[in-house]
Amino acid sequence: xxxxxxxxxxxxxxxxxxxxxxxxxxxxxxxxxxxxxxxxxxxxxxxxxxxxxxxxxxxxxxxxxxxxxxxxxxxxxxxxxxxxxxxxxxxxxxxxxxxxxxxxxxxxxxxxxxxxxxxxxxxxxxxxxxxxxxxxxxxxxxxxxxxxxxxxxxxxxxxxxxxxxxxxxxxxxxxxxxxxxxxxxxxxxxxxxxxxxxxxxxxxxxxxxxxxxxxxxxxxxxxxxxxxxxxxxxxxxxxxxxxxxxxxxxxxxxxxxxxxxxxxxxxxxxxxxxxxxxxxxxxxxxxxxxxxxxxxxxxx
Length: 300
Known about the structure:
CATH class of the largest domain: Alpha Beta
Structural class: alpha/beta
Number of strands: 10
Number of domains: 2
Radius of gyration: 18 Å
Largest sheet: 6 strands, mixed
Shape: globular
Low-confidence stretches: none
CATH topology of the largest domain: Rossmann fold
Order of helices and strands: EEHEHEHEHEHEHEEHHE
Distance between the termini: 44 Å
């Protein structure tokens, strides 16, 4: 068994304190920080790398190259080390020091891109580097690789259905590449077409919800299936921060900012539903990679 073999099968947790005042509605969260590198991105990274191995595109002579805001890069770095492959990652220069240090600890190389260009700048730079020397690199291209979606269709979506005993009525989560949202939503709707799937986005192009895209102002991922979303809700950075603190202080769950955004949106949705509804969201990653952020020190 290798580190790649323990990806997935994460627990589905009940948010009993956060959802204590809900009238007969259950609020559940998929604890993706249990994945070996600490985030949901392990699922897509594993699937894309193993697909590359299977079709002969990823050999030990090639370097894995891609753009990342942090979590997929950490997964690539961990798995690249396990597979014996070099890893070069393009990421915005304002990514947290924790994420950079984790990546470097696995022996991967970071190329920092212009912070104001956000994940779009990193994506364009990685694409250009690959196209300049395609024989040197294996480029999973997480934003446009259908294997990303398939990993969640075959894994995360199945787990949510089984762990909720088929009781899930609503699925709601944010989008970076949109692989989790698209794959899980398709799978759940295949099980039960009445399940409502809701996409979460930041409420502004200038936001602090790491790993989450404001689709109207960014390069739209090729794998994003807008048609699978029954609704889209928008969350402010301040609300995401506040819920991230609440999850740590009330539920004992030290998670990242996108998780806070997801739970804030899920709780708001749950308050509009009648008894018997089961709302499932995603705790995307561990909060330990954001501890240098000042919002933790706020009291409210």
